[in-house]
Amino acid sequence: MKFEHTNERENRTTAQVRRTVAKSGVFTRATPNPVRVKSQQGLDLYPMTYPANLAIIPDGNRRFAERNKLALDQAYLQGFAKAEHIMHWLAPTSVKSVKLWALSLENFHKRSSLELTILFELMKHRLNQSLKDSRFDGRDFSVRFIGQTEKLPRDVRDLMGKLTDKSKGAPRELCVAIAYSGQAELAQAAQKAGEDFKAGRIDKIDEAAFSKYLYAQEPVDLVIRTGGVKRLSGFLPWQNAYAEVFFSDKMWPEFGQDDLNAALSFYDQTERRFGK
Q1: In the structure, how many helices (H) and strands (E) does the chain have?
Q2: Mean pLDDT across the stretch 74-87?
């Protein structure tokens, strides 16, 4: 599916999204406030155990818009800002990587062109803002994109590439999954691994060899899904094999720092068994 702005209605929507962004103040820097478990005297009882690799399924933007009688672009705008807030809330922690599922491949094919116009206009705005932000000069967190990104509009892909290059070398990573399908990732990896094996470029296909063909090799420690839906919907199926899972009833735009802290506390208090 190739996405193009095809009619006057979509052009009007693009203009409306830009006006909404210009009037909003949602892209503000959040103040980090990490979870600490303290005694009655206010002293730390023990250090938090944080997930090194966190995955987030940010569900509930459309339901949040309906519930609060908001235009869809306003809800998505708050959702985009939330991703940035999450990274700053995590700044004092030892979380090194966050994988955020921004758009599934199924939704890319099934959502209306009007809704995709809204998403891509907001995405372009946020990418342009990030390219001007010194925090993306490799000092705060790097950004990369996974999924079938070749299906996205060229101007979006170009901005994504520029931000990836600009932010390289940072100590933490935000990995954004767009037009992503877990089944498609596994099928693509299997095909490439098989081709390399047949050509003699690798001598066997085991778990370690196969994982090198995936978008991300490191296992996920904790998955957070918002929106009250209790399933993973195929997000990172290989990487999530032994991940702990935290479900929140909050819609993504209303997911706050206390909710994030609750998820981190859940992980800290969970005994991980890895199949034992």
Answers
A1: 9, 6
A2: 91
Place of tokens 């210009």: 22
CB contact at 8 A, 83 and 123: no
Contact between 114 and 70 (Cβ < 8 Å): no
- Give the active site residues: 59, 107
More confident residue, 51 or 25: 51
Please report which helix (H) or strand (E) contains residue 187, including its range: helix 182-198
CA-wise closest residue to 1 among 103, 121, 108, 92: 108
Query: In this structure, which amino acid lies at residue 49?
Result: T
Site of tokens 């818009």: 65
Is the pLDDT at 122 greater than 60? The verdict is yes
- Return the pLDDT at 238: 98
Annotated domain spans of the chain:
48-182+219-268
Helix, strand, or coil (residue 248)? coil
Round to whole Å and give the CA distance between 148 and 151. 6
Half-sphere exposure of 228 (CA within 13 A, CB side): 8
CATH architecture of structural domain 48-182+219-268: 3-Layer(aba) Sandwich (3.40)
Of 261, 234, 263, the residue nearest 247 (C-alpha): 263
State yes or no: pLDDT of 166 exceeds 70.
Answer: yes
Distances (CA, A) of 92 to 115, 130, 152, 220, 272: 36, 21, 34, 20, 23
Looking at residue 273, its pLDDT comes to 82
Q: Give the pLDDT confidence score for residue 139 in this predicted structure.
A: 81
Is 89 exposed, middle or buried, given 0-12, 13-18 or 19+ CB atoms closer than 10 A?
buried
Q: Which two tokens stand for residue 82?
A: 């939330």
